[in-house]
Design goal:
Number of strands: 21
Largest sheet: 4 strands, antiparallel
Strand order of the largest sheet: 1-2-3-4
Helix content: under 10%
Radius of gyration: 17 Å
Low-confidence stretches: none
Strand content: over 45%
Number of helices: 1
Mean pLDDT: 97
């Protein structure tokens, strides 16, 4: 199938052994009951095989709705999926799953969410710092705190549980473009979505994230003030402001830098997009 036939949100690309693996939130079940995630494979980012189920709830998994934003990262000889989930009895949070191959099948690894149990959290991403310490970077959701936040928290080496307290990186309102929005619950605030960490060629530590602007869903960018993960991040000009976001960066087979995000931000019309970037301009 072609890229424009794939209805997913929150695209995430992994390149391994010459194959591109594409993960994302199933468009059809994004906002309600859900059962799993798929992966698509490609040699060229244009034609894809799939969808191939890579995680399916067998009836024993704790969450039954809002299966969001799967990311797959290599760590200590295995593959770990960071994804957001929710149930009637638990706040939304990021849990970690494990598999022997990027295609899965993934099975639950952490004991429920690793994000704080009394917080509404989403979109956890993985980052290993220069000392080899694993971290999760995630959103404390605006529907709970008003001004959406992005936090970092160290994890145990086994990626099963927190290894320290969360640390605030920034709030949505620090970006000048962010528009105030109103939730169906009546909550008014500023959105944070989809953090993703990238170490630039010049050593800067960048954080992609998304919010809503007058022009629609927007792919934002921030930079660590110190080059460390446990630091404040300052806002840079957005990467994309034409109703697309929840993106990530990856290197293609030829070493070029690519941004992928979903656009438009409209139910059942979301598609992954691939946008070449010049790293010197980040």
């Amino acid at each position: 199938m072609r890229t424009d036939e794939i209805n997913i949100r929150d695209p995430f690309v992994l390149l391994y052994n010459g194959v591109y693996y594409l993960y994302g939130t199933r468009g059809a079940t994004c906002w309600g009951a859900a059962t799993g995630f798929d992966v698509y494979t490609s040699a060229d980012l244009e034609t894809w095989e799939g969808p191939i189920p890579c995680f399916e709830n067998d009836g024993t998994f704790w969450a039954d709705r809002n299966y969001w934003a799967p990311e797959v990262h290599p760590w200590q000889g295995a593959w770990y999926m960071f994804a957001s989930f929710k149930s009637e009895t638990r706040h939304r949070g990021t849990a970690i799953l494990r598999a022997e191959t990027p295609q899965g099948p993934f099975v639950p690894w952490s004991d429920g969410p690793v994000t704080p149990a009394n917080w509404e959290c989403l979109d956890g991403t993985f980052f290993a710092d220069d000392q080899g310490t694993p971290w999760i970077v995630f959103c404390h959701e605006w529907v709970q705190v008003g001004d959406g936040e992005i936090w970092a928290m160290p994890l145990t080496k086994e990626l099963r549980a927190p290894a320290g307290e969360p640390r605030l990186l920034f709030r949505a309102s620090e970006a000048s473009f962010v528009k105030q929005v109103r939730h169906s619950s009546g909550q008014v605030g500023y959105v944070t979505d989809g953090p993703f960490l990238w170490r630039a060629r010049d050593g800067r530590l960048l954080c992609l994230w998304s919010s809503l602007a007058e022009t629609g869903y927007t792919q934002a960018l921030a930079v660590s003030d110190t080059g460390r993960i446990d630091s404040h991040f300052s806002q840079l000009p957005p990467l994309f402001d034409r109703d697309g976001g929840h993106g990530m960066l990856f290197k293609t087979k030829d070493g070029s830098l690519m941004l992928t995000l979903h656009s438009p931000n409209e139910h059942l019309k979301e598609r992954p997009r691939f946008i070449p970037l010049d790293e010197a301009n980040l």
